[in-house]
Protein: Penicillin-binding protein
Organism: Leptonema illini
Amino acid sequence: MEKRRLRLMLFLAFLGLGFLVVLGRAAYLAGLFDLSDRMPGPGSSIRGPIKDRRSISLAVTEEASTIGLAPPELLDPEFTARYLAGYLETDSGEILRKIYLYQGRKYFLLQRQVDNFTAQQIMDLRLPGVYREYENRRVYPSGRLASNLLGFTGRDSAQALAGLEYVYNDVLTGSGYERGPTLYLTVDSILQYRMEKALRKGFEGSGADRAVGIMMDVETGEVLAVANLPDFDPNYYYRDDAAAKGNWAIRLNFEPGSTMKVFAAAAVLNERPEILNKRFMCKGEFPFQGGSVRCLRHGKTQAHGELDLFGIIEQSCNVGMIQAASTIDDATLYKYLVEFGFQERTGVLPEGSGETRGYMPELKSWVQSTHYYTPIGQGISVTPMQLLRGYSALVNGGSLLQPSLMKRIVAEEGVVLDEMQILSKPTSLRPERMQILNRMMRAVVATGTGRAANLREIEIIGKTGTAQKSSAAGYIDRYSTSFLGAFPADRPRYAVLILYDGVGGDQSGGGLSAPVFAEFVRSILPLIEAHSEVFDVADYERKRDKREQAHEQKREEERERDRENSQDEIDDGTGAEQAYRLAVRRLNAREGVVPDFRNHPVRTAIEWSAMHTGIRLNVRGSGYVFRQQPAPGTPLRDAPELMLFAE
């Protein structure tokens, strides 16, 4: 009996001792770390998502895991390292190095931001000394898409480091376990993808330091796409250097070059409409005290001869532009440039975004050469967003819109906290005169320096630009090439800028940027049209066919009038003489002067010129004449050559 009692007491003693050991061990471990799978602490916020205008998620917060190790608990460090390496983004040697490095510690974090599926696989191995904690991580589902715009957060998703994440950090950050509001952008992911694809094609092989592509709705100011190259994957932001992460659309300052000519032309045309009847002589160089400006083609001086304002814009003539801009004074030119927004930030993003304001000297600092250099885009710097904003004012009839990237901000319960407002400033521009400027820009694309941007499917207007880059030591052999375009030509709804910065001297806006513009616009035509945001391909094709039928009907009506006039004409002369008389009737031509060929078929001009053998006819384009040189009413004796521009 005593022996049984003794054995029972010994058993209970051993049991109690074992319980104390387990309890002590648990207390010990509890002092090191929580053995359970832990949720984020009360201070951890759930960051709100960023979505595009189609509600496609561009940045989301999801639950993730941290894998930690307790060196005192590792029974076989080499075995543990080898198995963990099969699941984590590191090799077994690196894991083993950390184990030995931190062997004096009770616990350390091996890897953060591990997806939960992988973390669960690791925990299923039941390796001694391997533990898991829960946290939140920021994920960018589309990878590089719009990365320079979105920016990124640190390992802690509440730590915004760049881009929209940083600018809207206070908006996106939730409170406790509450999810932050959703930030909806004006950007369309499909347009963004196609912009980046086209831009990248030109970027590769061009030697450019960077590239920017922006698309804007000129009626609302909504930015539909904004691409930057080089770019990066914000999911792995630490793999790229800082140069790949900049939002150059709002930070890059560059000389706009010849794209500035359309702004100078707008000022001159608005102030001096009679300039349309003036002609300017380009001998290839414009000398002035202290310097000179040349027109160059393939590095050699090019004389354009006599040009009107149409020809100056179409052929991108520096000398002619300087002379035309000299018809208005410094204060007037400066006033218009300020109206175009070239002295202020666009406000496309809130304060703190890093947007720069470019550079334009104050009026009091202008000297003679300032008035010569500014109209051709030298001595002034702009940001890509500034340039496109000002251009939108030209093509929309004169409203300077504030660009917007924020569509709306919506709380988790669906309450709209903030929403984009269309904000605009009036300018002095007269819409009817800007329509004339649009025709000039149409000539740039149809027959001028921007021919590579021309499309059969839709009429484009635009302007090319090539500008030499400068440094502290002066101008260097690197260039910025650009193309500013808008469509459809008759009533522009969308404006696009394609810019390559830091290319070699063998590149130009017409040769590099314009083809990329054309490729991008062609790729998105099934998605957009002049008066609606998105439509299907069948609808687009129906409207295209309808336009072509209207053009054909117009041509048939013209042919019918020719037949009727031919029957009315009683003449014993030759067929050429009859055609000449018909042309004179249609043109209402007066003897001894150049007729007005505008809005008439090229064929009519050819029939008229057949009886004027002393005049050389030069036709660019086909269809109907929209511009001519010399002007109507010019004496025939002063017109040895007749230049017609048709479309």
Notes: The domain at 193-527 is CATH 3.40.710.10 (Beta-lactamase). Residues 526 and 537 are 5 Å apart (CA to CA). Confidence is low (pLDDT under 50) at residues 21-43, 530-541, 565-574. The radius of gyration is 35 Å.
